[in-house]
Design brief:
The chain is α/β, with parallel strands linked by helices. It folds into two domains: 207 residues, Spore Coat Polysaccharide Biosynthesis Protein SpsA, Chain A (Alpha-Beta Complex); 77 residues. The protein contains eleven helices and 14 strands.
Length: 309
Amino acid sequence: MDVSIVIPSKDDPAGLYFTYAGAVADLEHSGLRYEILAVVDGEFHDTARSLKAHNGCRVLRTQADSPQGARHAGAMQAQGRYIFFLDSHVLVCRDFFKRMAAAMQSTGAALLHSPHCTWSPRTMGYAYGVAWDGNLWSKDHQITPTSVTPYRVAMMGHGAICADREAYFSSGGYWLEQRGWGGEESHLNLKLWMMGHSCWVLPDVYHWHYMAHRRSAQVFGAPEHVRNFLISAYALGGDRYLNRCYLAYMLPAEQRDAANGTKETAVYQKLRDAVPREAAAERVFICSGPFKGDLDKLREFFRKEGIHS
């Protein structure tokens, strides 16, 4: 099997259908041996039932309640050398899979990103800068590509990506200690780098990524969301990066508590206190890689190599 296409879907039957149909339309003339796995996270809707009944693709059901959990469940069942993860609200460009697979082979990438396009091809996103002094998430979008050929990036979104099977599993894949949405993409990218692998973007092979609305401020301050970034910061960079991440959340929370009489800071303090225990195993694993768990060394590597971060 050349490629496996994993489409995680939660409460999005129409998105699943159009992502599946768009993938098949491109794969049919790619010359690749392929399989498609739809991973339905939660309610098993009519679209999933119909795909299963008509043998359109393999359909898995999970209760992971997270993008990373659904993606990883699909990866565990996938047989291809390369594993594509497509959100269930994307459409890929022409020859997407053929060109992505070829670039995986030529670059030796562990993870290959495609630029995302939301409303116009004139406004692409190619890479994320890293919030090194905050939660290690994206601090900016690279909207002008560094090169017309594949190039290395620190991290980028995971709407339509390709992973090398061996590199993905040898590095532990998505970290399932992270729950719900947020932080799983940056963590996997930076972990792959810390374990001696590389992440790339193919700048002229893109996908349409539907975003109907922005997430609210409440989502970004929710305890589960904050916890994902706290445990990631500790696992990747130890106490110093945990403290930076913690302060990035605490300072605004203190202002909200003072203004609204809430108790967010007490919640965040409890989350922070639990981090060394909850992230201990991941921290030990990352320290076994060539950067020895020293995120500053990776940051310096990016700087010397001219990798957008």
